[in-house]
From TrEMBL:
Name this protein carries in UniProt: Extracellular solute-binding protein
Claim: Signal is one of the keywords in the record: yes
Alphabetically ordered keywords of this record: Signal, Transport
Tagged with keyword Signal: yes
Gene3D superfamilies: Periplasmic binding protein-like II (3.40.190.10)
Annotated signal sequence range: 1-18
Coiled coil: none
Species this protein is from: Streptomyces luteolifulvus
Length: 441
């Protein structure tokens, strides 16, 4: 759950209630006749979201309550969703609806028989307004279980406009030009990039964007399922491209040693703090929250972004994370739970959610005007434009022993590669050995 780690929202579980109102409010929220069809019923929901993300989601839940009369009880699990909700499901006492933060969680819960297939209404709404890839990620063994309602764009490069102006460079459209821009920034006095090497998940994100653009979506899918080996020439080529960033003197703030001591928040501060060390930092759209919240800078003025550029003539990548709404088979109120998921699939829900910021909808019916600022609108447009070429974070699809914070997994091996980027084939062999063991288990 890398996005959750990045946002640093590890908190104890808390419960907040959004209560349905009367018929007049139902009319205000868009109901055609103000009917309170679920009045007196309760739906329980669990998700990872806290803070501003929770507050924005509560607005959506309130709209559902106003429309239907249902009472919605929301529980935040912090970053412990699979553990907390999995234990409740195993004990026969799950929430009615869960917002699964990873593809693997949807797959695991479905394979254990804990989930109810989504309704035809949900399926039809998705067929009409979502790229097919998002339905694919919510489908397990041919049955549709997970509605992707919230997506993170992990293909964004954030930069200091002042650093670009000082170096005389413009936002690049190719990977090679991005490295050249970084070198120009380095020549002007700052490092080109800050890399959060202390957090191994950021290195997997670098690799995934390069690989998706360079090797293509079909190979990306195969590698994510370990249907091709990590010693495949496409992997070696992507590691070679990543190594160009790691091995160039002066391109990374502090060099490899400095990067390996830099956590994700520190990498953002290296570019947008009061004493900048670098001109660019790669990570997802959630960088904006760090800039605005912790560093108190203005996104769009002090900080701007450009899409992760195309590599070797490939398409510009869109790697995303996301949260899928699922209905539990042992839900206490399954009919009302499904009604909530049907509402979450609607333009109305997406429009309300988008207005709060920090949210991207894969629903193409959500208008760009719903987003609160130009950067959010651009990010939303990028998601829709990516269509079926968008791909879910690869390491989040892998077994935790390989894709997670394991001493023998991808995080650690890429940290070693950052330290010694010349050993491309050796790194590929280590990745394959670790993947083979994890996928076998």
């Amino acid at each position: 759950m890398k996005r959750t780690l990045a946002a640093a929202v590890m908190t104890a579980a808390l419960v907040v209630t959004a209560t349905g109102c009367g018929g007049d409010d139902g009319k205000k929220s868009g109901s055609s006749d103000g009917a309170q069809e679920l009045k007196g019923q309760t739906v329980t929901v669990a998700a990872v979201w806290t803070g501003a993300e929770e507050a924005n989601f509560r607005k959506v839940l309130k709209a559902f309550s106003d429309k239907t009369g249902a009472k919605v009880e929301y529980t935040s699990t912090g970053d412990k969703f699979p553990t907390v909700v999995g234990a409740k499901a195993e004990g026969g006492n799950p929430p009615d609806v869960g917002m699964a933060p990873q593809v693997g969680v949807v797959q695991e819960f479905a394979q254990k028989g804990w989930l109810q297939p989504l309704s035809k209404n949900v399926s039809d709404a998705v067929d009409a307004n979502y790229a097919p890839v998002w339905k694919k990620y919510g489908t397990v063994d041919g049955t549709y279980y997970g509605l992707y309602v919230k997506v993170n764009d992990k293909s964004t490069v954030w930069y200091s406009p002042q650093a670009f102006a000082d170096a005389g460079v413009e936002p690049p459209t190719t990977y090679e030009d991005m490295l050249k821009a970084g070198q120009a920034i380095s020549d002007s006095g700052l490092a080109g990039f800050s890399v959060a090497g202390q957090d191994g998940w950021t290195l997997t994100d670098w690799f995934e964007n390069i690989y998706l653009s360079q090797a293509g979506a079909e190979n990306y899918d195969k590698l994510a399922k370990h249907e091709i080996k990590w010693t495949d020439p496409t992997v070696v080529k992507a590691l070679t491209s990543l190594g160009k960033l790691f091995e160039e003197d002066g391109l990374i703030a502090g060099g490899a040693k400095g990067a390996l001591g830099t956590p994700y928040p520190g990498s953002v501060a290296d570019v947008f703090g009061d004493k900048p060390k670098a001109g660019m930092v790669y990570e997802g759209d959630f960088v904006g929250a760090e800039i605005k919240g912790t560093l108190k800078k203005t996104v769009g003025e002090d900080a701007k972004l450009f899409p992760f550029p195309a590599v070797d003539g490939g398409k510009a990548p869109f790697v995303g994370g996301g949260d899928a709404a699922v209905v539990f088979k042992k839900a206490k109120n399954p009919a009302a739970a499904m009604k909530l998921v049907e509402f979450l699939a609607s333009e109305e829900a997406g429009t309300i959610w988008a207005g709060g910021g920090g949210f991207l909808s894969p629903n193409k019916a959500v208008p760009s005007s719903a987003y609160p600022d130009d950067i959010s609108r651009d990010l939303g447009a990028s998601l829709i434009k990516a269509g079926d070429t968008a791909r879910f974070d690869m390491s989040d699809q892998a077994p935790a022993a390989f894709g997670g914070p394991s001493n023998n997994g991808e995080w650690k091996i890429l940290q070693d590669f950052l330290r010694s980027p010349g050993d491309v084939k050796g790194t590929a062999k280590k990745l394959e050995a670790a993947a083979a063991a994890a996928y076998k288990d």
